Amino acid sequence: MATSPVLFLLLYNALILFGAFRQRRGFASGPALLAILFFFSGMPALIYQIVWQRALFAIYGVNSESVAVVVSAFMIGLGFGSLIGGWLATKFPSRAILFFALAEFGTALFGLASLGIFHWLALRTAGAPLASLVPLSIALLFVPTACMGATLPLLADHLVRTFSSVGYSVGVLYFANTFGSAVACYLCATFLLRDFGQQGSVRVAAFLNLAVGLSAFFFLLRRNRHSNSASLPDQPSVPVAPFLSLRMAMLLSAATGCISLGCEIVWFRVFVLASNDRAPAFALLLSTFLAGVAAGAYVAGKLSEKRSAPETAFAIAAVLLAAGGFSPCLPPIVAFLKFKSISYLFAVSGFFLIAALLGAAFPLLCRLAIPPGTLAGRGVSLIYVANIIGSAAGSLLIGFVLFHYAGLRTISSILAVSALLLGMAILVFLRRRGVRFKFSPVFLSVGFISIFLVAQLFYSRFHERLTFGAAMPPAASLDRLVENRNGVIAVLDNGAIFGSGVYDGYFNVDPINDKNLVIRAFAVSAFHPAPVRILMIGLSSGSWAQILVNHPEVESLDIVEINPGYLKLIPQYPVVSSLLDNPKARIHIDDGRRWLFSHPDRRYDLIVQNTSFYWRDHSAELLSADYLRIVRSHLLPGGIYYYNTTGSDDVLATGLSVFPHGLRVLNFLAVSDAPFSVDRGRWFSVLRRYAIDGRPVFDSANSQSQAVLERYAQLADSLGKPPAENGLEDSSSMRQRIRNPLIITDDNMGWEWREMD
Question: Which pLDDT score, from 0 to 100, does residue 232 have?
Fold first, then answer.
């Protein structure tokens, strides 16, 4: 994945940071060092966030409810940490840097032990009801996230006392810290998670925390040696009335945070579809988003120094109007690039710009509501925590609620309109306060509203372009589309189904017109003597479930599916519609791994998983050796786990590293603790009794059916012959053939962060 467009933006921010130190007199020694330390402090924070979220999702699932719980736990900890940091800065102003160092040490210590703590907790709580996970997740992440959240108000208070400039001090710190986080996201996407895995990445983050903490501690010792007094100089005692009340600034900060995080969630879905659901897409988007927020915060903080309060307030309105006008243009641009076979990352400069506009609001609000003085740290903490609360609300509202009822275009428009209305509300507020404008507020508002309206014209065939790009079959068209909080499901008029932009199969159970290799589903009885109780992880089109539930010997089929959107599609396709009324089938809407954790006593003769491509985001959680051991515990004696390797030798090798016996069936792998025996006679006996919806699947009077059975016989006879892609292969042959495999684990995450050949 060519990441140079994102790298270019990071280099641009590096030039800004370098220029900040060259242009600012008096900022070249102590304060510059603190800004650099805050840059490196931001790096481990995002490494932890990416790794911890991934580790917790492996325990609690990646369904939307679990994601909301984990994200909220992060936000709550950051918010409380900001309040604690503001209180400490006000109560002990001379010790702000000491508390900053202690916060870094505390984060490092937790970081080193974090994955072990998560694993220990998983053994005791995995599968618990979601309601109990909310306080548990908050308690688990509170200490490290509170330490992270406390750092900004602590250092902001110190710099405000030094420079008497709230806007610039907050802007440069916010810029440095957020820029550090952006760099960390880029490193995660390009090599850190690929080469170090989860545990190694956490160690790198902890090392950075320790280095920053020690550097801050030595800086404090050096400053005290060269100072006649341990206390920092207070600012002039003459009170300065702020232009905005702190309450108003907090409300605006919360609103901009809500819009900003809402946009990030919408953009993430766009990136998922454009990247074909690759894991680095999230880290690259987050890097772009944070880099933009950082640049906007710095530029806004710098410009606010020389602007009056009314001009600063007008600037907030202007950036919100601009963000509202231009943000709806971004998703169609990405769709157009994919349609033209151009990397979606060439659109990141647009995302960077909108993020910069939204990121500018925070330091500007601090400038308007916080006078320089002894309470600066407290004021920054309150505005910051309001921003965090708004961000958490935006994350939950968009990702958990609105996506359940609306699609990308609608939600993108809602966020844009919200930004436009908020910007116009600020202009009305300024008008009522008698502020005269250099630029016509009506002209400004109408201009950006017009841009918003024009952007709506570019959504024609938006999903077709974003999902399929130039690969859209010429004669095909989009037949159905389901958008919900779990993802996007698109179906072509030929029955091909795509989940989150990736091929997921066909609505087809016909072995004669075998477009989706249903031979692999019909082959079960070739190697399993009596699959009475079956568990199936993943439903998708329902085609495999329809075949398995109608197996002559099956008595029950449990199906676990994470996305309920498929249940809306299945009734519309006659070949699978009867599945939902079949008394032998029970469908559970849940994350597959979480469901296994939640039902430790369930045992099955056969567990089937038509896993998607091994390189997709979160695919390793259903392919890793750790997961296979969980599956193994749910098999009855002689039970078989049968799953899709999507052609990966590493997936094959991982399965054989956990189970002693294996059998490859085309690109599927069957593994078991018992040896395999392919019984052609038993298999064909079952096939002749197969019927779906009362109609025989293999009609003895149909020449096409007989031709299919001949091909099935050739498949059965391929065992023991030189291995072929479309044949059978035993475990001894696979072990001899596969050299130097990557054994997929939860820690290394398989191929999710690796470039495809």
Answer: 45
The rounded distance, in Å, linking the Cα atoms of 428 and 721 is: 80
- Residue 345 tokens read as 């990352």
Buried-state track 502-516, b at ≥16 Cβ within 10 A, e below 16: bebbbbbbbbeebeb
CB hemisphere CA count around 476 (13 angstroms) = 19
Residues in the chain, overall count: 757
Q: Which residue has the tokens 């064909």?
A: 684
pLDDT tens for each residue of 651-670:
999 999 999 999 999 999 99
**Other CB atoms within 10 Å distance of the CB of residue 655:** 25
For every residue of 490-551, DSSP letters joined together read EEETTSEEEETTEEEEES---STT-TT-THHHHTHHHH-S---EEEEE--TTSHHHHHHHT-
Mean pLDDT of the chain: 88
Cβ-based neighbours of 194, under 8 Å, separated by 6 or more: 753, 754
Choice between 222 and 151, residue whose per-residue pLDDT is larger: 151
Residue 319 phi/psi, 5° resolution? -70, -35
Q: Which residues of 253-279 are buried (b: 16+ CB within 10 A; e: fewer)?
A: bbbbbbbbbbbbbbbbbbbbbbbbbbb
**Which residue intervals of 623-679 are DSSP H helices?**
625-632, 649-658
> DSSP 3-state assignment of 91?
helix
Q: pLDDT at position 57, please?
A: 80
Q: How far is CA 557 from CA 253, 535, 576, 605, 639, in A?
A: 51, 6, 15, 11, 15
Least confident of 115-124, 336-345, 516-525: 115-124
Q: What CA–CA distance (Å, rounded) separates 663 from 731? A: 6
Q: Cα–Cα distance between 747 and 51 in angstroms, integer?
A: 9
Average pLDDT over residues 671-682: 95
- Residue 607, CA atoms < 13 Å, CB-side half-sphere: 26
Could you tell me which of 353, 333, 356, 355 has the C-alpha nearest to residue 343?
Answer: 333
Based on the number of CB atoms within 10 Å of its own CB, is 290 exposed (0-12), middle (13-18) or buried (19 or more)?
buried
In angstroms, the CA 244 to CA 248 distance is 6
Sign of CA dihedral 405, 409, 412, 418: negative
Mean pLDDT for the stretch of residues 497-515 = 92
Q: Which DSSP helix (H) or strand (E) runs through 397? A: none
Q: Output the DSSP codes for 668-727.
A: EEEEESS-----HHHHHHHHHH-EETTEESS-TT-HHHHHHHHHHHHHHHTTTSSP-TTS
Neighbouring-strand partners of residue 478 = 492
Residue 234 pLDDT level (bands cut at 50, 70, 90): very low
Q: Token pair for residue 166?
A: 């709230």
> Residue range 603-626: average pLDDT?
94
Give the C-alpha separation, 345 to 154, whole Å.
Answer: 36
The answer to whether 157 and 96 have CB atoms below 8 angstroms apart is: yes
The identity of residue 477, as a single letter, is S
Most confident range (mean pLDDT) of 165-169, 378-382, 631-635, 704-708 is 631-635
Residue whose structure tokens are 């719980």: 69
Structure tokens at 246: 């702190």
| Residue-by-residue DSSP string for 348-394 | HHHHHHHHHHHHTHHHHHHHHH--SSTTHHHHHHHHHHHHHHHHHHH
Query: Contact at 8 Å (CB) between 668 and 642?
Result: yes
Collapse the DSSP code of 63 into the 3-class scheme (helix H, G, I; strand E, B; otherwise coil) and give the result: coil
Tell me what the mean pLDDT of segment 368-391 comes to. Answer: 79
Percent of the chain whose predicted confidence (pLDDT) is above 70: 90
Token reading at 171: 């802007």
Judging by DSSP bridges, how do beta strands 691-692 and 496-499 pair with one another? unpaired
DSSP code of residue 622:
G
- Per-residue pLDDT reduced to its tens digit, 79-91: 888 888 888 888 8
Position 235 confidence tier, pLDDT thresholds 50, 70, 90: very low
Residue 358 to residue 353: CA distance in whole angstroms:
9
pTM: 0.90
